[in-house]
């Protein structure tokens, strides 16, 4: 069974990382236009670094939860596409993880495109190791930018038999449209979330509850089928 799993912020919520659109989500605390767009970075790069430095510091003190750990049991059976920029799937032991929105622990040079492992905190004085310019940014896909690995993702959706979305509100495209793409290719679609997402009606099955409870149970059911 070719299994494609899409995860969102809800899978990391119980590890203490904020989601975006829940009651106390990140977009209720920050103006995403200021910290998650190329225009915001051009206007005030110091504020952007401050925002991502705080998220990176929070990530460095967080650990994978039971949902991340359960998904590791599907290594070799499932491809994991994540909207999340945290590295908790990898730290739990998942392989074959596609970060379509980039990675918080990676840095990108806005001048020459060089990528390197981000230092714990970046500032407007952080030099690019390749070109030396002070144009370091988080290697995170911002609103208005093209998500990474879309060709590979589209091939996976065209061939998958089961598509599962975990911990995502279905607010942001193209990820929110993956379920329709997979269903058009004949896949069965399952949503695992704390509450029905904005695209819940596109799924054949919706499993509600906290990911640390629902995901281990679902993985065990898959493995015993
Ligand atoms: N268990 C399962 N689901 C949860 C939990 C939990 N413990 N806590 C929250 N959720 C669900 C919420 O019900 C919500 O549907 O996770 C979802 C989180 O939604 P968002 O905050 O919108 O996060 P996400 O869907 O990942 O956002 C997508 O938007 O801002 C951009 O680039 C950012 O990757 C992000 C994208």
Structure overview:
The chain is of the alpha/beta class and 225 residues long. The protein has 2 domains: 1-16 and 64-101 and 147-225, Rossmann fold, CATH 3.40.50; 18-61 and 104-140, SIR2/SIRT2 'Small Domain', CATH 3.30.1600.10. Helices cover 32% and strands 20% of the residues. The chain is built from 9 helices and 9 strands. It has helices at 26-29, 32-35, 38-43, 45-60, 66-72, 88-92, 150-159, 178-184, 211-224, and strands at residues 3-7, 78-82, 97-99, 102-109, 115-117, 136-140, 162-166, 188-193, 205-208. Strands 3-2-1-7-8-9 form a 6-stranded parallel sheet, with helices on both faces. Strands 5-4-6 form a 3-stranded antiparallel sheet, with helices on one face. Helix 5 (66-72) packs parallel to helix 9 (211-224) and helix 7 (150-159) packs across helix 8. The chain is globular, with a radius of gyration of 18 Å. The protein binds adenosine-5-diphosphoribose. Adenosine-5-diphosphoribose binds next to loops.
The string of secondary-structure elements, in order, is EHHHHHEHEEEEHEHEEH
**Whole-number radius of gyration?**
18 Å
- List the domain count as a whole number: 2
Question: CATH homologous superfamily of the largest domain - what is it?
Answer: TPP-binding domain
In terms of DSSP E residues, the strand content is 15-25%
Low-confidence stretches: none
């Amino acid at each position: 069974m070719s299994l494609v799993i899409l995860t969102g912020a809800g899978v990391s919520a119980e590890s203490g990382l904020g989601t975006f659109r829940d009651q106390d989500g990140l977009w209720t605390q920050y103006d995403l236009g200021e910290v998650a767009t190329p225009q915001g970075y051009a206007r005030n790069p110091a504020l952007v670094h401050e925002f991502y430095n705080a998220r990176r510091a929070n990530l460095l003190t967080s650990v994978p939860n039971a949902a991340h750990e359960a998904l590791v049991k599907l290594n070799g059976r499932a491809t994991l596409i994540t909207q999340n920029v945290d590295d908790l799937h990898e730290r739990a032991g998942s392989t074959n993880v596609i970060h379509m929105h980039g990675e918080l622990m990676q840095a990108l040079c806005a001048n020459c495109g060089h990528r390197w492992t981000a230092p714990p905190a970046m500032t407007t004085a952080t030099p690019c190791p390749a070109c030396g310019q002070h144009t370091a940014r988080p290697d995170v896909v911002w609103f208005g930018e093209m998500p990474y690995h879309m060709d590979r993702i589209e091939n996976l959706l065209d061939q998958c038999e089961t598509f599962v979305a975990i911990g995502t509100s279905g607010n942001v495209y193209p990820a929110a449209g993956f379920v329709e793409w997979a269903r058009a290719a004949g896949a069965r679609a399952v949503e695992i979330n704390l509450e029905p997402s904005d695209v819940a009606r596109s799924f054949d099955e919706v499993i509600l509850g906290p990911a640390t409870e629902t995901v281990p149970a679902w993985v065990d059911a898959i493995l015993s089928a």
